[in-house]
Design the sequence.
């Protein structure tokens, strides 16, 4: 917080004359490119120049504006035209300069500011009670008049939180062997948010490198207090990490809560046994299967299995994957009728939960004023665009084929000869994502907002008559 | 805001909730006697609850207890009169118990428990009415809906606890209202609604009641008691209020019963059979040392008076013990006067009343004293006491030296050796204090064990008693001692040493005859 305050004290940079002229030069370069359409004149990677082009031609400013207005940008008298202007944005500029409390009155202002400043990252914050730019005037009164009033319910799931249960990559890397962990998270949470909590307008976004973000945009979700957000996050919480406990998942009670039971039966078990067991080679080496054995509270069973596997008695005729075989043996021992002990009843589930269940970043969800990266930003380290993920088709999402900045610009150049359509992004791979964003998220959302706005206006007028 | 009228229209009675939420003081007139009597009756209920809770009664038992207590003390034929008494008594006790932090804490706990169990005893419609009073947006689910979610509700109930009784009454409420239940996965969730079981609703209602009352108590103290009532009502209400807060409601044993006259020779036998531990300890120490300090003389002397020891016998008894130490002449000169004073034969001629348990427990025996409540006050041997007391002063002096030393160090350059010496001294002092305190803690239990052993208490009973002592339920510990010694139950709980004595005698005499 201290750092942020310090950075925000630095006045946002206005582009110098040199930079503005550089932009014009770029335009000229672009023009020259058109004359010589070569295959890959644009080297891979990420740069401020590419970003400028991206913001100029591809970033869906208008869609973001319409989304975050939640219907208040209309002509209807019930619309609150100050709404969008009270939303906080933050920009991370080149050289890690971070500016907070940016706000815009309308779509044009926002687009101009983004194109001018060319932020490496755009974060979206809450809607405040007053325009963030004017916050100092209100902070003095001491009444806490400057406070968040609305904010989407958000979730952030990061692959690096799973480093203790994935062996294919670690840290920043992601591959198709560990990505199913994200798929699991999307499925489990999406179902729960819709079925258990009754939310409808949910946007899942690829974070650009190794995780996913979730934006729950129902009005009811936006108006949740911090306490209620924490309650939802706790409802989802199962894995309790930390260096001191070997056993991080404790499923007490004779049966599981319906939410956990459903997640287990519909998602976790299938992924664990069908995918992760083999792709992560969870039983292939002694360090790996010892980690699993640590979860078993009964020493004798654990050591019995340890001996069995350490001896490496794998019959040569067995074609089956060693992981599958050993997992079956473990399940057999734990679930056989002999085991009546309390701690063992849920052991198989606990192992599966440990290796698959979503691990949320609790702090992100708990506080209204937490900022989260905007969809359709470009990740500076990978160059990939933060595209939406379809929860109904998330099994097929491949993070390694997500469009990159350079790829998109290439596509732009290639196709500029062919068509003359309104939106430039339609000519690129980004088109698919933006179309999906509009059809499956934005349209239904705005439709429901219209209904709500209309209804509230009707209620208002009714009340006015009553007195 | 409820308005309670003494003449109620029948229609009102059907709609108004059965339990009061005590939101505001009633606009009623009360006779002065009723002011005190109603409060005393309610206090009996609250103390009964306190006793039940410290004995560790289960919720079902508590429900029964509350029902009995209420019926015994607060019932009235006319339901509106009963409601009036309920409200008046509550508000009087608010005045009584708002005055200190400890009083508030006790009152808050007992009133919340009372409300909780009375709520549970109400009919479902009545409960729903109350919930709407609290403005809780809970909707009971109808049978059809219940059938569709029955299995899931059962699953949730089983997932949260080993033995949850099968609930059939559930409420549907937006999940935003019950964040703590959602966070703990203690409710079934469907489309944004949480399905809350009856016992969970009770908790939520009770929590709401508690927080309302807590705020009200603080306000009562600051706005009503200290600012207006205490002084204005100096002669009328204030003495009543202050007397009520001792919480002792039993007989004061100022007039010994006729049949319980005892003679000198009986005393020694009675001491080992029917005296509570506090008096027995005093008695034993008197016989051992042939002396007792003032506190002990008062506590034991008044007790013996109520037991039935006549003045002449008392004088003879004390003389026989004291003269072995100080001589007969000194006894006559220095001690006999105060004994006669206790019996009301000298000076003011006030016939002093024997001390009740609460007075004995709150006394402060120091080095060389043997009075007080052993369950609370048993200390280690005199030497360690002395050590502790003197050492506090010593430590204080050292601390001052250390601080001034540090100050000089800061002012000048850092002198490593001086600093480290001071550090070591501080650590040394600290460790001595810690060791002493631990030893005294340890010793007090040992002493108590020994004393109870002499009374013939051992095994499981002894462990239960010590358990109660550790959780500071001294009177319950004494009650358990009584029950262990006499192999009989004492439902009313011990509140007065003479009550112990009389109850004991009653049991022994019935077994003899």
Sequence:
């Amino acid at each position: 917080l201290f750092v942020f305050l310090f950075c925000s004290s630095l006045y946002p940079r206005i582009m110098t004359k040199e930079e503005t002229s550089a932009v014009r030069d770029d335009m000229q370069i672009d023009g020259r490119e058109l004359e010589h359409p070569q295959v890959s004149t644009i080297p891979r990677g990420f740069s401020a120049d590419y970003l400028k082009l991206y913001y100029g031609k591809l970033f869906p400013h208008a869609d973001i504006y319409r989304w975050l207005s939640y219907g208040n940008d209309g002509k209807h008298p019930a619309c609150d035209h100050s709404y969008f202007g009270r939303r906080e944005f933050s920009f991370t500029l080149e050289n890690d300069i971070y500016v907070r409390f940016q706000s815009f009155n309308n779509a044009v202002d926002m687009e101009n500011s983004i194109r001018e400043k060319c932020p490496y990252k755009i974060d979206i914050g809450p809607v405040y009670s007053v325009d963030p730019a004017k916050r100092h005037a209100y902070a003095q009164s001491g009444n806490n008049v400057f406070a968040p009033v609305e904010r989407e319910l958000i979730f952030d799931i990061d692959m690096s939180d799973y480093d203790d249960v994935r062996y294919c990559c670690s840290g920043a890397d992601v591959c198709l062997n560990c990505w199913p962990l994200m798929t699991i998270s999307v499925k489990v949470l999406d179902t729960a948010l819709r079925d258990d909590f009754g939310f409808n307008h949910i946007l899942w976004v690829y974070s650009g490198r190794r995780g996913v973000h979730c934006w729950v945009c129902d009005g009811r979700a936006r108006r949740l207090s911090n306490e209620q957000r924490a309650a939802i996050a706790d409802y989802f919480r199962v894995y309790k990490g930390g260096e001191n406990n070997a056993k991080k998942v404790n499923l007490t009670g004779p049966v599981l809560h319906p939410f956990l039971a459903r997640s287990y039966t519909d998602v976790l078990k299938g992924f664990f046994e069908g995918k992760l067991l083999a792709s992560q080679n969870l039983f292939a080496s002694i360090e790996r299967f010892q980690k699993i054995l640590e979860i078993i509270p009964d020493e004798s069973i654990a050591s019995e299995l340890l001996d069995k596997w350490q001896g490496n008695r794998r019959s040569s005729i067995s074609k089956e994957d060693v992981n599958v075989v050993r997992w079956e043996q473990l399940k057999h021992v734990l679930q056989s009728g002999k085991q009546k002990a309390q701690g063992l009843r849920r052991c198989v589930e606990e192992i599966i939960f440990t290796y698959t269940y979503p691990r949320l970043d609790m702090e992100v969800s708990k506080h209204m004023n937490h900022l989260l990266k905007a969809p359709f930003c470009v990740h500076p380290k990978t160059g990939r665009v933060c595209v939406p993920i379809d929860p109904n088709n998330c099994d097929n999402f491949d993070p390694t084929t997500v469009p990159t900045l350079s790829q998109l610009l290439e596509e732009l150049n290639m196709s500029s000869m062919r068509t003359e359509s309104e939106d430039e992004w339609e000519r690129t791979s980004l088109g698919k994502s933006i179309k999906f964003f509009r059809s499956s998220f934005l349209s239904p959302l705005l439709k429901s907002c219209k209904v709500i706005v209309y209804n509230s206006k009707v209620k208002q007028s009714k009340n006015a008559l009553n007195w | 805001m409820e308005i309670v009228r003494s003449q109620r229209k029948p229609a009102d009675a059907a709609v108004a909730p059965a339990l009061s939420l005590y939101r505001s003081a009633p606009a009623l007139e009360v006779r002065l006697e009723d002011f005190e009597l109603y409060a005393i009756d309610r206090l009996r209920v609250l103390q009964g609850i306190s006793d039940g809770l410290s004995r560790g009664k289960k919720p079902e038992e508590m429900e029964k207890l509350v029902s009995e207590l209420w019926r015994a003390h607060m019932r009235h034929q006319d339901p509106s009169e009963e409601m009036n008494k309920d409200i008046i008594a509550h508000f009087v006790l608010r005045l009584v118990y708002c005055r200190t932090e400890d009083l508030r804490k006790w009152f808050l706990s007992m009133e919340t428990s009372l409300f909780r169990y009375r709520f549970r005893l109400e009919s479902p419609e009545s409960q729903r009415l109350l919930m709407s009073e609290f403005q809780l947006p809970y909707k009971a689910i109808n049978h059809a809906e219940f059938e569709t979610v029955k299995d899931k509700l059962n699953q949730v109930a089983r997932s949260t606890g080993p033995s949850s009784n099968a609930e059939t009454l559930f409420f549907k409420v937006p999940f935003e209202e019950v964040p703590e239940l959602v966070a703990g996965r203690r409710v079934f969730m469907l489309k944004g609604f949480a399905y809350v079981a009856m016992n969970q609703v009770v908790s939520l209602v009770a929590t709401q009641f508690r927080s309302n009352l807590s705020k009200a108590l603080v306000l009562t103290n600051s706005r009503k008691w200290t600012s207006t009532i205490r002084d204005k009502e100096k002669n009328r209400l204030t003495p009543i209020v202050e007397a009520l807060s001792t919480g002792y409601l039993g007989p004061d044993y100022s007039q010994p019963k006729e049949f319980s006259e005892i003679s000198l020779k009986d005393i020694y036998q009675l001491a080992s059979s029917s005296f509570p531990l506090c008096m027995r300890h005093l008695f034993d120490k008197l016989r051992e040392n042939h002396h007792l300090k003032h506190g002990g003389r008062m506590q034991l002397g008044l007790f013996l008076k109520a037991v039935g020891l006549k003045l002449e016998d008392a004088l003879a008894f004390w003389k026989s013990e004291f003269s072995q130490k100080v001589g007969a002449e000194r006894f006559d000169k220095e001690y006999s006067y105060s004994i006669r004073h206790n019996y009301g034969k000298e000076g003011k001629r006030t016939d002093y009343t024997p001390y009740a348990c609460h007075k004995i427990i709150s006394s402060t025996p120091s080095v060389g004293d043997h009075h007080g409540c052993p369950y609370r006050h048993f200390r280690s041997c005199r030497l360690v006491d002395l050590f502790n007391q003197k050492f506090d002063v010593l430590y204080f002096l050292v601390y001052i030296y250390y601080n001034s030393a540090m100050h000089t160090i800061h002012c000048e350059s850092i002198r490593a050796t001086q600093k480290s010496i001071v550090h070591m001294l501080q650590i040394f002092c600290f460790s001595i204090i810690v060791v002493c305190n631990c030893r005294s803690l340890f010793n007090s239990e040992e002493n108590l064990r020994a004393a109870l052993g002499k009374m013939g208490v051992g095994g499981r009973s002894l462990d239960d008693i010590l358990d109660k002592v550790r959780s500071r339920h001294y009177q319950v510990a004494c009650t358990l001692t009584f029950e262990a010694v006499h192999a009989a139950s004492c439902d009313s709980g011990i509140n007065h040493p003479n009550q112990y004595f009389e109850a004991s005698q009653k049991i022994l005499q019935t077994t003899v005859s």
